[in-house]
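This section describes the prediction task in plain terms. A model, or a person checking by hand, is given the sequence of a single protein chain and must write out its three-dimensional structure as a string of C-alpha cells. No templates, partner chains or ligands are provided. The sample shown here is typical of the held-out split.
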Amino acid sequence: MLSVVIVTYNSEEFIKSCLESVFIQGYKDFEVIVIDNGSQDKTNGLIRNTYPQINLIRNDKNEGACKARNQGVEIAKGKYILTLDCDVVLDKDFLIRIVEVLESCDKNVGIVQPKIFKSDKRTIFSTGIYLSKLRRFYDIGNDVTDKGQFQRQRYVFGACSAAALYKKEMLEDIKDNNGYFDERFFFLVEDADLAWRAQKCGWKALYLPSAICYHSGDSSKTTKKIRQYLSFRNRYLTMLKNDGILGILIRLPFLIFYDVPRFLYLLATNRYIWLKI
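The expected answer:
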C-alpha cells in the first residue's frame, strides 16, 4: 500500500487537478492524506465535498510544509509515502512506474525521484538534488528544456519533495528529534537534509525518468525575501547537522569567499535577516 501525503495552503486553484491526477491512476492500492495549513479560501470545502474518501487534517494556522508532512507521515498506513505539492499533476502511469521500480531495485534504495517538469511540459523542474562542494543544493536540470538528456536512470543525492517517493521504513530509520522532515526549517532545503541523513544511514536515492509529473511551482505565493532568508538559514542548519563543526571548518575558506558577500547583501536588502539575528 502507498500513502499520498499532500500539503495545502489556500490551494483551491490547484488541488482539484492534483487530486484528479491521483485518482485516475492505474495503481489503486493507495490512501490520500491532505494536511491543510489554515487555508482561508475554499480548499477545505472542495476536498470535503468532492473527495470524502480523503483523510483531511486541518491545522488552525500555517505550520509549514515540514510539520504538515510529518503529520501525514505519522498516520500513514502505507509501505511507501509519496509527498506531493498541491500544484503537482501526475502522468497517468506515474504510480505504477514508481512503485514497480522501488519494489524491484536495490533494497537500500529508500527514495525515488521522478522526472518533474514545469507546467509547460517541456522545461525541467527537477530530476534530483545535487550537492556542490560549496554545500549548495541544486535541482538537477532546473529551467533546462528537455531534449532527451535526462533519460538515464541513475543514483542522485536526493529527491525534490514536491514529488518524491519514500520508503516508510527509511523514514522511521532516519527520524530525529525534529521529525522526518526537520520542522525547524518550515520549508526549503528540508528534502536535502532528509536525503543527507538517509545517505549517512546507508540509504540511496534513485532517479526514475519514466515516472513523470508536472509542477506549477510556488503555489503558496511565498515572497522572494522570505525564500532568500529561509534558503540561507536552512542551508547552514543542514550543514551543521550533517557536516558538523569540523566539516564546516574544513570548508571555511571557500564558505567565507562565497557566503560573506551573500550575507552582507542579505543584511542590506532583506529585513527578515534582521528580524532573526
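For orientation: The mean pLDDT is 94.
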